[in-house]
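Task card 7
Instruction: Convert sequence to structure tokens.
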Amino acid sequence: VLYPAVPRKVIRYAVGLHTNRLSYLRSIRPGYSRYAMDMNPGPSVTEEEAAAAKNIVISRKAKLQSADID
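Output:
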């Protein structure tokens, strides 16, 4: 366990906040390296993951634009 003093629920919440930010989603590119919680290199971003991130960005952007119109 990397951070034994921090409850798993808190870590999951914090990671979720970070990985759902538009700035993070926009930075995802196929082949880019990711890092594990212990800062060791993790698996590279796949084409599918990059496409999914791009779709989320497009969806959120459309949602924000439609909210501005209403």
